Model the fold of this input.
Amino acid sequence: MDQLAAILSQTNFTALDWVIVGLYPLISVAIGLIARRYVADMGDFICAGRGVRTALGIATLTGTELGLVTVMYNAQKGFTGGFAAFHIGLVAGVTTLVVGITGFIIAALRRQEVLTIPDFYGRRFGQKTRILGGLVLALSGILNMGMFLKAGSMFIVGITGLPPGGNALMIVMLILLVLVLFYTIMGGMVSVVIADYVQFVVLSFGLLIATALAISKVGWTQVFASMSEIRGEEGFNPFVAEGTFGFDYVVWMVFLGLASCALWPTSVARALASESERVVKRQFTLASVSYAIRVIIPCFWGACAFIMIMQTPALRDAFFPEGFPPPAAAGTEALDSLYAMPMFLGRILPVGIIGIITAAMLAAFMSTHDSYFLCWSSVITNDVVGPLMGGKLSQRAEVKLTRWLIFAVGVFIFLISFLFPLREDLWDYMAITGAIYFAGTFAVLTGGLYWKRASSTGAVLATCAGCFAVFGLRGVQKGLAALIRIDPERFASFTSARVGLATIGLAVVAMVVGSLLFPDRAPAGQPIGKGE
Amino acid sequence: MASWMLLWKVVFLVVVVFFAGLAVWVTFQGARDIKTLLSTLRARHEKAQRPASD
Done:
């Protein structure tokens, strides 16, 4: 801990930067108060009255999907995988572009005028599927958020040089959490889209300025040449089997690209809040650039941090105490690679700029949280509690319940973020916890939208099959190994990519077999992807 | 390896340039969209309240 404190204390962060960071959240609070006047009913609260146009849609989509946590896990991938990690961004951008051009899933969902994905489940497959889908979605989503506060706090520590061992960090995160909860509870989607717009502006220019400064400090040619010298082929080619990624990982990223834009509820929520199908398609087509940039720029920072660390003996000894590449079973504990990027920015950015960049990152942190809070809580209200109550909840009661759930989810993630250790790269944790939901959802949505014979039994089986993704988590594998008394290393080949892809296959098979063996007697709906 | 390096250099530069353009456009157009969104919501709110007050 002393070594970490000593390394992080060499930051350019000053009192002026703290002032900049301190003033920024006040803007969000003001937005929450103003937006509250425009919220009349649940449609306004969740979908901003379906009045979001293209540019605002892109801002809010980017504001949500380009969060501080996104920046952290992608920078970690750039640090551990080099430029080969760029494939994640390239694949995400191309997949989003294809989804935007074709309207695959998103346009068909927007046409239905549903509030959430489980709402679609209810219309197509009946209320039981809706409740199950809502529960799995909320579970997966909240679990997925579990490490947000931890990653956010590590960024703050890394860039500001705060003492990592004290309570200061937890207090900062608690203050941020309270601010996000406040304006999300007050204004719902109206305040979220406006806050996201402000955050998009600050964040976009912040990212570009920081990238320009990183290039000027490390050198454009130097960063590529040094990576080539240190890592060789595996620093660039994602298909190298003995590298960080490999063929199965790249295929897994293709599916994650689709899941991120067309299946993940916070992205779909933006499609559902859009003015029309045409706007949805245009929004996703243009936002494909954001989906690529949210990976590529942080990966670049991570790669630059790696080069700087390898060229500085004290840092190299801290991050790679047993040399590079680190041995499989390291005896000496190394510094967490999540600290590399914020530490790098803390050293290269000048006073003032570092405050603006940190404010932009905190903005990103808040914009992700607000959307996620709103999304999971509205799913529980609309798709679990609502159907269980037989639709007896009034509009006012729905909004009130959603606000209380936002608060409850906030408390829950605050607790688990600090209680549970992270055993894999953050991105792999996010991917596998997300897969609990989207592996089943991929099968159910594509079946429901485009296959006439898809049945409610198939949908339930596919949703349950998606839960097998949880076995991709190292912590779960370790627990399972202890339970059946075998060596945890026997699960070493069960990587998150392989478990994720196998789960998707299982969910698709469950959907097809379940639908063919148990067709609905009186179909709750028809395939609606073509539109009538 | 040289071809992979060239690919990532090109991808990086193209994406950054596109994103810079997108950021400028969204900054200006997004502000107009917010204005429209709020006026739409306000009009709808007033319309919904009108029958009750009549």
Notes: The first helix of chain A runs from residue 2 to 8. Chain A touches chain B at residues 38, 40, 44, 48-49, 51-56, 58-59, 62, 83-84, 86, 89-90, 93, 190, 193-194, 197, 200-201, 204-205, 207-208, 211, 224, 228, 232-233, 236-237, 286, 289-290, 292-293, 296-297, 300 (CB under 8 Å). The CA atoms of residues 335 and 355 of chain A lie 25 Å apart.
